[in-house]
Design goal:
about 700 residues; alpha/beta; Spore Coat Polysaccharide Biosynthesis Protein SpsA, Chain A; 3 domains; eleven-stranded mixed sheet; nine-stranded mixed sheet; 15 helices; about 25% strand
């Protein structure tokens, strides 16, 4: 959107900004602002708050200084709450001049976008190709697993997600992206499952349970922090210890019109929005996240965004982490080829007189910074960081990647009326903390990996509308899920699948097949291929595997088959926390045919929302320590098989009829044993008890 500020910031305001940046004390800052207002001849309007505390007078005077006093009504309600909001903005942006610095930065950055400049000499980064599991990539995977005890993960989960139009149909209340249900699971749950799959793999290889700490940056936007905490409590912290999570909230910032006016939604009530993910570093330091991680012996961290759902597929994340650990790098980007029409930045090495910098340039700034190389890789906001290095970089760059981009924003005013207007705000990007990491030798402390796009990024950013592009919609993300499933089943597991059709036909006829699985089944395709060998999915069929201990060969599905265990990773203790163990739900199917009417295509609505209606389906529910075994049988019609805890249920055919037998188990009868081969491949083998 090529919207630029309609008037340039005036020189007097620029001079005021420079002056306040040179002082430290609150008293000096107040004196500078008061002198400025006297010259403007509107200082007399401020008599009504002269009795307030100095820090409160400072933020109120700042509004007058930037010409936004219309946002204040001293005689109306909510004034004290507005002052609190202004104090928060003043404190967080103190490094750039507080409220005045925030306003001037917005005006200056948007005005500058009408021009063009180069930041230096641009180079295409030298990327490590991890798209194939070569011997060197296998070494990186094993290295990542061995170093998992020293890793933390950080997720910015509290964005506004306005373009997704997330709203509870029953209550009308807005939702946040983290709680959005995608194919039966919230976006946050999918990220946690990816992490647990890596932890489970570590346990299978090394016999030790580790819990990687997770720091979550939420937001007060749409009451996001409360929504996030509620979901975590309802999910019992996803079977993890509450103490393994650290929640911290990003501040909200004022929105401006293209004319430079602060937007209001009511009397003494500003339209506030999250200020971008770049604030995560400063907030992490100020809220104690870095100290919390340091106490646990964590040195490195993986950064993931909540709306990218495919990054954990196969071995990509493990290989990426392995490069960072093996070479002890300070910063890394996981990249992939660019896609036409996608709103994404590019990774580039910028060479200046100071040295070289591997960084990101956002898509909205490509023209401004004269980036013309179509061969550059797409930034995916998957980052590897050294925690001590980040703290050092914060001294030079507390708010990285500041930019202003005009967007259409939906909001509700104080009277409950919905609006949509073009607005701008100062945002910052978490990946551009790399701007401060200057290297004398190109990519000596930094690295970048290259993986297949469909295994690296597929984002749910905006709502799909017929007649517009599917890019960055949940529908497109779901399609990428199915494309990855097709690759896995056909090229690794030896399955026969129906052919893919025009993606838009999914909305009319439904997808050609559905295959969803818990990442602990692998996550590497090579591991899954050992557990799921040869078979067929007929047109319109569905296979869902919420299980890790699976031994299937010759499976033929014409209809719907769900295999679900409440103990995918092991047993739960008295507090409901997951303990990785062999007390899982187990399923063995040999030469089994599934025949039922499956999905009712005409009645099913949105597949990615799991609004699926079944005519018939076969469900196998396996409790903790339970086992199901079937060989040479037909599972026909609408069938629900429940396997109790500690019991083995076997299915067999007798005179053409399906029969079941039960056997009480003292201990699991089998397990997958994982070993690391001489070539660093991970080999799962069946071990009988």
């Amino acid at each position: 959107m090529n919207t630029f500020l309609q008037v340039a910031p005036n020189q007097g305001l620029l001079n005021l900004h420079r002056e306040i940046l040179e002082v430290i004390s609150l008293e000096e800052k107040l004196q500078i602002i008061e002198r400025f207002l006297e010259r403007k001849k509107n200082a007399g309007d401020t008599f009504w708050f002269q009795d307030r505390a100095p820090e409160e007078r400072c933020v109120l005077l700042s509004l007058y200084a930037i010409g936004q006093e219309a946002a204040l009504d001293p005689h109306a309600k909510r004034l004290d709450l507005l002052v609190e909001e202004l104090l928060s903005i003043e404190k967080f942006y103190s490094s750039i001049g507080g409220i005045i610095g925030y306003h001037v930065s917005c005006l200056s950055l948007l005005w500058q976008k009408s021009g063009r400049e180069k930041r230096g000499i641009y180079h295409r980064p030298k990327a490590k190709d991890i798209s194939k599991c070569t011997p060197s990539v296998s070494k990186y995977i094993v290295s990542a697993l061995r170093n998992l005890p020293f890793l933390a993960e950080m997720y910015p989960v509290g964005g506004a997600a306005d373009r997704l139009s997330l709203c509870n149909e029953e209550t009308g209340a807005f939702q946040i992206a983290a709680t959005l249900e995608f194919a039966e699971k919230s976006l946050l749950e999918r990220l946690i499952e990816d992490l647990q799959a890596r932890e489970y793999l570590y346990w299978k290889l090394f016999g030790e349970q580790i819990t990687v700490p997770v720091a979550l940056m939420s937001s007060q936007e749409k009451n996001g922090t409360a929504h996030l905490k509620k979901m975590l409590e309802e999910k019992n912290w996803f079977g993890r210890r509450k103490e393994s999570f650290f929640l911290f909230s990003q501040p909200l910032v004022p929105s401006l019109s293209p004319e430079g006016e602060w937007c209001k939604i009511g009397t003494n009530e500003l339209l506030l929005k999250p200020g971008g993910h770049g604030v995560i570093w400063k907030l992490a330091k100020e809220s104690g996240v870095f100290d919390w991680l340091k106490e646990q012996g964590k040195h490195k961290a993986l950064m993931r965004q909540i709306n990218n759902l495919v990054a954990g597929v196969d071995f990509g994340l493990l290989a990426f982490l392995g490069v960072g650990f093996t070479e002890n790098k300070d910063f890394g980007f996981a990249a992939c080829p660019r896609e036409k029409g996608a709103s994404e930045g590019v990774n580039v090495v910028i060479e200046t007189e100071e040295g070289c910098c591997l960084t990101n340039i956002e898509y909205c700034d490509l023209e401004h910074f004269q980036v013309e190389d179509d061969d550059l890789l797409a930034n995916t906001n998957l980052l590897f960081v050294d925690l001590k290095t980040i703290e050092d970089l914060l001294e030079k760059c507390p708010i990285p990647g500041m930019l202003v981009n005009a967007k259409k924003v939906k909001y509700r005013d104080s009277h409950g009326m919905n609006h949509e207007k073009e607005m701008l705000r100062l945002e910052s990007t978490m990946q551009n903390i790399a701007d401060a990491l200057i290297e004398k030798e190109m990519q000596s402390r930094t690295f970048i990996t290259l993986n297949k796009r469909k295994k690296t990024i597929a984002t749910a950013k905006k709502e799909f509308a017929f007649g517009s592009s599917m890019k960055e919609t949940p529908e497109d993300c779901y399609l990428t899920f199915l494309e990855n499933a097709k690759d896995l089943l056909e090229n690794y597991c030896g399955f026969e699948l129906p052919s893919f059709r025009d993606p838009l036909s999914f909305f009319v006829d439904g997808p050609p097949f559905i295959f969803l699985y818990h990442p602990a089944l692998g996550p590497q395709y090579a591991i899954i291929a050992k557990k799921l060998r040869e078979g067929r999915l007929a047109m319109g069929s569905e296979l869902k595997l919420q299980i890790a201990d699976l031994d299937v060969e010759g499976l033929d599905v014409d209809g719907s088959l769900h295999i679900v265990s409440d103990a995918v990773l092991g047993h739960r203790d008295e507090n409901g926390k997951i303990q990785y163990s062999n007390q899982t739900g187990k399923c063995t199917l040999k030469n089994v045919r599934v025949r039922n009417l499956g999905i009712h295509q005409e009645s099913s609505r949105s597949f990615w929302k799991d609004e699926i209606v079944h005519r018939e389906r076969c469900e196998i529910w396996i409790e903790e320590g339970g086992e199901f075994f079937a060989r040479d049988v037909i599972l026909r019609g609408d069938l629900s098989i429940k396997v109790p805890s500690g019991v083995k249920v076997s299915a067999f055919m007798e005179e053409g009829q399906l029969k079941f037998s039960r056997e009480v188990l003292k201990e699991p009868s089998w397990q997958w044993k994982y070993t690391i081969g001489e070539d660093d491949s991970i080999e799962p083998l069946i071990e009988l008890e």
